[in-house]
Amino acid sequence: MRLSIPALGLLIVLLSAPAALAAPTCQDRAGGTIRCGAEGAMPAGWSLPDSEREAPPPTDTLAMWEAIAMVAMLLALIAIMPEFDGRSDADWDRQEGDDER
Fold first, then answer.
1. 82-100 pLDDT, tens per residue?
2. How many beta carbons lie within 10 A of that of residue 46, not counting itself?
3. Which are the contacts of 28, defined by CB distance < 8 A and separation ≥ 6?
4. Would the pLDDT of 62 be above 90?
5. Cα–Cα dist 81/101, whole Å
6. What is the value of pTM for the model shown?
7. Higher per-residue pLDDT: 34 or 101
8. Residue 27 — φ and ψ, nearest 5°?
9. Which residue spans within the chain are E strands per DSSP?
10. Do 36 and 43 contact (CB within 8 A), yes or no?
11. How many CA within 13 A on the CB side of residue 45?
């Protein structure tokens, strides 16, 4: 019960905080994103009409599968690494001066 009171207070504070508003996004005549107020920027809120929009470029599925394979190989290399936590002497190689102990 005691732990729920600070959690409830934190919840109330977070829910009552005002929303952060982002700056408006402006576009140029070609429909690209540009900083508002820059030369060639259209008014805030303006967007390119749908009839003038270009179709998005086709996705390169081969590149996508190559990227997935690279991530899978990286994860496989991490998985086959030997377990090492450094707690036992067997985890470490022999160093100079080990015979003196």
1. 877 777 776 677 777 777 6
2. 15
3. 34, 40, 41, 42
4. yes
5. 30
6. 0.39
7. 34
8. -130, 160
9. 26-27, 33-34
10. no
11. 0
Residue keyed to tokens 């377990």: 83
- Distance set, CA 62 to CA 6, 24, 73, 76, 95 (Å): 52, 37, 16, 21, 48
Q: Given a cut of 70, is residue 101 above it in pLDDT?
A: no
The region of weakest confidence among 8-12, 15-19, 39-43, 75-79 is: 15-19
CA distance 66 to 71: 9
CA–CA distance, 29 with 47 (Å, rounded to integer): 9
What tokens appear for 95 in the block?
Answer: 């160093």
Question: For 13-45, b where at least 16 C-beta lie within 10 A, e where not — what string?
Answer: eeeeeeeeeeeeebbeeeeeebeeeeeebeeee
Q: Which residues contact 54 (CB under 8 A, 6 or more apart)?
A: 31
